[in-house]
Amino acid sequence: MARKVYHVVPSGESWxxxxxxxVLSKHYHKDNAVTEAVRLAKxxxxxxxxxxxxxxxxxxxxxxxxxxxxxxx
Length: 73
Description:
This protein is an alpha+beta fold. 19% of the residues lie in helices and 45% in strands.
């Protein structure tokens, strides 16, 4: 099973939670967006949350469940 990667990204004055480019939710506070992304990620393991800064650069991540196998066998 492939790992789902949720992104918390800035959008104007708000923050978005995205999965595969699709916006799942919009929040006015970054902490609320991170909380929602973590909730979704914990419910769909293996998963990861990548949190970005206001300028769009990577800030930190959370990983849940085991990483999928990289190679068959």
